[in-house]
Amino acid sequence: MKENYNNSPHYSHSSSPKYKKSTNHEQEETSNLVQTCSIAYHGEEQIRNIILGKEPVTAVVNTGNSVSLVREDISRKIIDRSKLSQNRIVLSGIGGSKVSTKGSFQQDFTVDEDEYCLTWHIDTKLPS
């Protein structure tokens, strides 16, 4: 079953006691509306195997992040460059460092056989 978070400001999924899924809409400094989704795992494991589009990907699940990031090389396997949104945001890190994303796209992903739809922002500086 696919959960589309675009029309729902908050969602809790109770089929598994290990997960809490929610979305928020936040206004960023750059005046871009950013959709976020959190998958909170109540345990030690934070690295998950997911299917992003049709690509198997190892993902770091971090519920403290306000945006979902994807490496540029992974995004090239998933979406044609012409379909990228030019919605670029500036991310601020600890110590005041800033990184600008290269664009964004909306894409389904699957984790533990549950399907979701989320906006992914392309980060050219994520490590391999």
Automatic annotation (TrEMBL):
Origin superkingdom: Eukaryota
Compositionally biased spans, kind Low complexity: 1-17
Region (Disordered): 1-31
The name this protein goes by in its record: Peptidase A2 domain-containing protein
